[in-house]
Amino acid sequence: MRGTQPTKVFWFFFSKKNISFCSTDCSEGTCTVTEVTYGRFDLHALAATLPDTASTLLVDRYLTNRDSASARIFRVYRGTPPHYHVHSDEYLFVLSGRGTFWMNSEADKAEFGPGDLLFFARGTVHALPDILAAPVVFFSVDAPRRDPKDIIFVNPADGTPESFIQAHG
User: Fold this and answer.
1) If you average pLDDT over every residue of the chain, what do you get?
2) Labelling 112: which of 34, 36, 56, 140 has CA 20 to 30 A away?
3) What is the pTM of this model?
């Protein structure tokens, strides 16, 4: 109807450290805001908001960011050199694109594509040397939550956490 306001609105609040999924209910004439512990995400629509280019190797967007685990989407812009994470296991579900990926040993390099799930435990050296079809976008679950600075390059000259990843919106 024209001139009516929605009675329930769902929204996200982003800060550098957290994302909160909240609902606003204005059905009783006053608005109340409640943080909720669930959410529904259109991963392909969110992936489409990632920029076409970046100065970093990756750009990510957190969907949840809890101590026990975080969920995010990220786009890979260039091949990533061998690195590992000290504190988190990582699950990568391929939303789009194709490339090569190896875990533990370069001899294990294999192609990945949409629908594949890659898993590696904390401390496992891994790399994505080749992008074969862009855009390469992953849905990632890190358990426990991974601090963005938790990236150790096998060759320190390959980069820093700041050159590796950039947060998006």
Assistant:
1) 83
2) 56
3) 0.78
